[in-house]
Amino acid sequence: MKILIDVTTTQDQFASRGIGRFTKEIVSRMVAQSAAEKRDDTYLLLAFNAPTTLNGLVKEYPDMIRTLNMGKPRLSGKFNLLWWMLLYSPSIRRIIRREKPDVYFCPYLHRGFPSGRIPAIVMVYDFAPQVIGRYSSAHKNLDWIRKTQYHAELKRIRFASGIAVISETTRSDLEKYVPSLDMSKTKTIYLGIPEYLKIRKPRMNVLKKYIPSRVVHRGYILYYGGLEANKNVPMVVKAYRRLLDLWKESGTKLKHPYLVFAGGDFTRLDMRHPVLAEVRNSIRELDLEDDVFFTGFYDDEHVVDLLNAASLFTHLSLYEGFGFSPLEAMRSGVPVVASNRSCYPEVLGDGAVLVDPENVEDIAQAYLKLLTSENASAKQAKKGRKQSLKYDWEKTTKQLYTFMKQSVEAKKK
Fold first, then answer.
1. Helix/strand/coil (H, E, C) string of 369-396?
2. Where are the beta strands (DSSP E) in 23-132?
3. Among 61, 130, 230, 408, who pairs with 319 as Cys (CB 3.0-4.6 Å)?
4. Between 155 and 65, where is the model more confident?
5. From the CB of residue 94, how many other CB atoms can be counted at a distance below 10 Å?
6. CA-CA distance, 95 to 89, in Å (whole number)?
7. Would you call 228 helix, strand, or coil by DSSP?
8. How far apart are CA 194 and CA 215, in angstroms?
9. Prediction pTM value
10. Could you tell me where the beta strands, DSSP code E, fall in 248-332?
11. How far apart, in whole angstroms, are the C-alpha atoms of residue 71 and residue 88?
């Protein structure tokens, strides 16, 4: 097959986040699988005139990959639909006429995709904006613009040849929010967890780059995974405050753990960001400034150290389509307390302690049990790792390639 893929999410603000990581994993593994199986595949990568996290792959497989220049880099934002109509769509039409690809793969729906000319496979991850009721963390006027564009883009999904969703939860939401869609075109393909995430001794020289030694030695509760409204990050702070109260009441001789927030958003964004402002204000108002730490931006390869040094990982999202972060913690042998909402019961199963993400007492009690009982912590960590092993990028990639091939064959009939 000749496969045309939009890889611009490996070049913008999504490059180190879920969508960018997904694109990198899928393209890298699909090319490698094609080479290993000696398939007659060619990969055409649509990219901005800028570095991509796939540069090494392009150099490794020069006979299988060609990069097609889409012009100067642009961040994803409120003008996505406009740029698609005025610049990208005409360019892609010309590329399709010239290159005659068999299929188009769109890892991010809101970048747009060509419909009707060739089979197009589109990824759908979640419906957080509809569920939470927020389309932008900025001014309400921008929220309205993004809402209008979001629904316009969502309507176009009916014209895709195939739609891959990352959980049954997302599939149900797709049917709910796009009732006119032919659901026979959809396929649930679970995502994978990187192999480098495993149980190992954390490297102190790495950890010292991000948090003080005393935090590592005493232990900490870790959170990473973004600051969007659906992530429910302020509740982590409130539950931690309640944990400290319960800790004193329990009479344990153990010293309470610290709370660590990992990720550049916590230090890069300013206080005009409503969620960050609430988190920072809560820390101050609840007298937690000596107990809460922020790592700032961290290298992807260092997350394994941050995880393995953690006593507990927490993720209290009100809504998710899959949930990379808690699965990564589970793969690393860290006990997890997570939300009982949306996809988490489906994806995490009994591998995490699931709690009501809006009940401070329930959350704090779950923290306390795992942090003060080595037996409970070890049992939960074992369950979590077993559950996480169900998710494998090689399997994800093979399923997606087969889905593409089926769409191409259906088009020929």
1. HHHHCHHHHHHHHHHHHHHHCCCCHHHH
2. 42-47, 65-69, 103-106, 120-124
3. 230
4. 65
5. 10
6. 10
7. coil
8. 26
9. 0.91
10. 258-261, 292-294, 312-315
11. 9
